[in-house]
Write a structure and sequence with these properties.
Number of strands: 14
Distance between the termini: 75 Å
Strand content: 15-25%
Order of helices and strands: EHEEEEEHEHEHEHEEHHHHHHHEEEH
Largest sheet: 6 strands, antiparallel
Radius of gyration: 29 Å
Oligomer: single chain
């Protein structure tokens, strides 16, 4: 009798109402990191854990094992140059799935953590810690470098040398192709010489998913200004650069009263969302490897059947048994393929929805770049609010559009940066007729480039010629400041 030891894991639990990939990363590894070393670390990771240790694990050096039960189970397997580990833990109605996938030829390891909450789950903490296996990899010194940077839970002091300045220049020009992971660039405040956010805490939270670079000193940004034509962040500004041409850089300009903890949380969520949305090949998932293994078994059965058909000495009974086994295995392959396609579609839908934490966008970005963090969101929320104001509030029967718009406004917070900028600009321009030093400083801080042409000053918003207003050098109208404010408000706010 032919026995097929095939475990089909479809990635969803009966009765689940929340399923989410919450941690995903691919990291370079050294050539010396073999399958055997990988499996040894996986077993050690489990046995050293005070939270999910499985008793009775005795690894004999084999590359295909299963330990534990359905509530606490660890599996390992291999396929060609791939070694994989799959760990499932269930507690309090929440299922945690951890996958480690090593590609020896690509010299790359993937670490993935998923969370599934059943319909019976009353409450669980949404915060989580990245798998401890990541720190174990760093401690064993098996990880390679990414664009010359080590994978670290600490920030990198950067910009002291010409080579480092060149790297920063490329980043500021939104060219991060030298890296696999996103890069967070923090500048120092010119007065305090400190970063706006806690760089150590940020690096710890982004360990394994992004690099955190901090200026070696406050003069670095001044050097970069000439190298990248003023496109760099500076004076406490921050930016996230993604190693993909489809993901625009995200810049954060500090302002008075900024909630730094909230900003840091936004940065972490942006990076996690980007990493979790990266495409995974079939051999990057435990389910995909299982399916490929099963397909190989089916192909081997077919080869064996053909051999039997050529060998007339085998009995008809033997051939029928092999053929039945092949048909059964092939049917399972087809079913698993359908299940995998369905799950991929479901996953794509889940990633496109807004979850309870607001991590995924309701709308997708177009081709326009955001001039500062939250600009586009404020435009959208303002448009929704204006639409809502034009609708009757006390309507019976209720209007669906009123409830939907109000719900969206309640669920999305606005930093109010546009309103703050408008109030500050209105204040400094009130009663003014000329471009004073105070007005000039305020305009520059708000992203305007000021040039002179004849009898006028030309104000260009964030170096975008589409948004240009003019101001007379010698104003004669006592309402010149108010008129300029009205024009700026109409063009850019």
């Amino acid at each position: 009798m032919l026995f097929l030891d095939i475990l089909i894991v479809v990635g969803s639990w009966k009765g689940c109402d929340e399923s989410m990939l919450i941690f995903s990363t691919k990291l370079p590894v050294k050539e010396t990191f073999t399958k055997q070393t990988f499996f040894e670390l996986v077993v050690r990771w489990n046995q050293d854990s005070p939270h999910h240790r499985i008793d009775g694990i005795e690894w004999d050096g084999g590359y295909r094992h299963r330990w534990g039960d359905m509530k606490n189970m660890l599996e390992i397997t291999e396929y060609n140059d791939v070694a994989a580990a799959h760990f499932v833990q269930s507690e309090h109605g929440v299922h945690w799935t951890t996958e480690f996938i090593l590609h020896t030829e690509r010299r790359e390891i993937g670490i993935y953590l998923s969370r599934e909450a059943t319909e019976n789950t009353v409450y669980f903490h949404k915060e989580f810690k990245p798998p401890y296996f990541l720190k174990l990899l760093m401690r064993e010194n098996v990880l390679g470098s990414d664009g010359g940077l080590t994978i670290s839970e600490y920030p990198h002091s950067f910009g002291a040398t010409a080579d480092e300045q060149q790297v920063l220049t490329q980043l500021c020009l939104e060219d991060a192709r030298a890296f696999r992971l996103p890069v967070v660039y923090l500048t120092r405040d010119w007065f305090t010489e400190h970063c706006v956010v806690d760089e150590g805490e940020l690096a710890r939270r982004l360990c394994g998913v992004a690099h955190v670079l901090i200026e070696s000193d406050k003069d670095v940004s001044r050097t970069l200004k000439d190298l990248c034509h003023g496109q760099n962040v500076y004076n406490g500004g921050m930016a996230i650069y993604f190693p993909s041409v489809s993901a625009a850089a995200k810049r954060f300009v500090p302002y008075e009263g900024m909630d730094t903890e909230k900003v840091m949380t936004q940065m972490v969520r942006m990076i996690f969302r980007y990493m979790n949305q990266q495409k995974r090949e079939r051999t990057d998932t435990w389910d995909g490897i299982q399916m490929l293994q099963m397909r190989r078994q089916a192909e081997q059965l077919l080869v064996e059947k053909r051999r039997l058909e050529e060998n007339r000495k085998q009995t008809s009974k033997d051939k029928d048994e092999y053929w039945d086994a092949y048909v059964q295995a092939q049917t399972q392959v087809e079913e698993l393929t359908k299940q995998n396609a369905r799950l991929q579609n479901e996953l794509a839908g889940l990633r496109a929805r807004v979850d309870s934490m607001g991590e995924n966008p309701l709308l997708y970005y177009g081709d326009e770049k955001e001039f500062y963090q939250g600009e586009m969101l404020e435009f959208v929320l303002t448009a929704l609010s204006e639409k809502l104001d034009r609708l009757p509030k006390e309507q019976h029967p209720k209007l669906r559009v009123v409830d939907v718009l109000q719900d969206l406004l309640n669920a999305n917070e606005s930093e109010g940066v546009q309103k703050q900028r408008q109030e500050e600009l209105k204040r400094v321009l009130k009663g003014e007729r000329t471009l004073t030093a105070s007005i000039r400083r305020t305009l520059i801080d708000m992203g305007f480039r000021i040039t002179s042409e004849g009898k006028h000053h030309k104000l260009t918003y964030y170096d975008d010629d589409r948004y240009t207003v003019t101001m007379a050098k010698s104003g004669s109208d006592w309402r010149g400041g108010e008129n300029l404010f009205s024009e700026i408000k109409k063009r850019v706010y």
